[in-house]
Amino acid sequence: MENPSGSVSRLLSLDAMRGFTIAAMIMVNFPGHEDFVFPTLRHTKWNGLTFTDLIAPTFLFIVGVSITLAYSKKLDAPKGALYRKIFVRSLKIFAVGMFLNMLPDFNFADLRYTGTLHRIAIVFLVCAILFLNTNWKQQLGIAVGILVLYWLALTTIPTPGIGKVMLEPGVNIAAWVDQQYLPGKMWQGNWDPEGILSTFPSIATTITGMLAGRLMLLPLSANEKSNFLLTVGFATAALGYFWNLIFPVNENLWTSSFVLVTSGFASMLLGALYFLIDIRGNTAGIAPGVIFGANAITAYVLGDILALLFYIMPVGSDTLNHHAVSALSQTGMDPRLASMLFALFFVCINFIPAYLLYKKRIFIKL
């Protein structure tokens, strides 16, 4: 997924999109103060969509595009070696996710086995193998099948012990499956947003990225590719909106409508960036995104590690982030703005090691 090789198939727009997505992920994960956050910088509590809800599916979409661009020239290569590399990479990403879940106290008795990196590892493993063994029509059929079956499962199967179909937190069929089969701690006590059933539609999200990557390899003009991404993205998001009327957009359940709306957004964003950056050559301001994107997973991991210093370790009577937000708020600034400014400051702190790695041409591939 991180292959700064400079090959002709590499898209500067995709690199920038990946990097800015990681920067946004760090920003929303680490507000200056959890009690003071603008609503759109929080995940929705249940149904609905905020800016924050768009970040994870956008990254999975990018993973899908990257799979197509990275493996399209390897379809005729011996599959055994490719499978080993894919499996090892997935295992490493999953292991790093487990390490981050254990921070800061390494309490094995209260360990969570799911998370952002865990989901990335799983969908990368599944989708990379899928790409090597299917064509785009089969991939589209699998994605559609996943979304329809997931919709039917959540809206027709009664929750055992309750006896009726439920879509509310902790009592839906997805939560029940996690309660029965998911080991370890769950993020919300009796349910987990990165649980077992919701991983299936997240695979569909990544497949939409694979299909977008396939489009980028077609013998079309650059403008045609951009127009296709924008048009198909709009149509997909519109379809997701209408599906939302009977199956609500919900990141926690990763509903089928959520997949279509967010994949549509990601496709339109890629189409717009491709037009502006790769076609028109407008590269002003994209350097931070390219630098973050060159070591995207590394930057994400460093965010969690550096948070120990800025958000966990006490400085006097409180943590550094709370001191900063309190100081800014005392000047009359809205505490939510102060919290966001500290989050942006923390993104800049994370940019420093990312920049040093990029400057030394060090690209860490998990």
UniProtKB/TrEMBL annotation:
Q: Does the keyword Endoplasmic reticulum apply?
A: no
Sequence intervals crossing the membrane = 50-71, 86-104, 116-133, 140-157, 196-216, 228-247, 253-277, 289-313, 337-358
One GO molecular-function entry: acyltransferase activity
Q: What is the lineage of its organism?
A: Bacteria, Pseudomonadati, Bacteroidota, Cytophagia, Cytophagales
Keywords of the record, alphabetical order, are: Acyltransferase, Membrane, Transferase, Transmembrane, Transmembrane helix
- Occurrences of domain Heparan-alpha-glucosaminide N-acetyltransferase catalytic (ranges): 10-217
Q: What is this protein called?
A: Predicted acyltransferase
Q: Which Pfam families match?
A: HGSNAT_cat
